[in-house]
Amino acid sequence: MPAPVRSSATPGGQAVLERVRQQAPYPNGRVIVLDDDHNTFQHVVNVLVKHIPGMTPDHAWQLAHQIDGQGSAVVWSGPLEQAELYHQQLSAEGLSMAPVERC
Length: 103
Hints:
Elements: E1 5-9, E2 15-19, E3 28-34, H1 41-51, H2 57-70, E4 72-79, H3 80-92, E5 96-97, E6 101-102
Antiparallel strand pairs: 1-2, 3-4, 3-5, 3-6
Helix pairs in contact: 1-2
């Protein structure tokens, strides 16, 4: 898609066309862990603490309880590329995952 064009005039009255640069915001994503019957609370906590930056054991336990009680929990959200990485890492550790949700 071509960049939008803005028209302006010079002091001598000549029209000047300028390309206007637009930046789209970088897409974000949500990493969602789903409840299942084969992962223990301790395994979920260990995996979240291992792979999600800044995840504390206390917060991971809260998320594990939310996953168990509500069926799922958003465990991380931010730039889409990082969300895809964390999704892949958690999945490789055996957690049940929803597809990365764009937001």
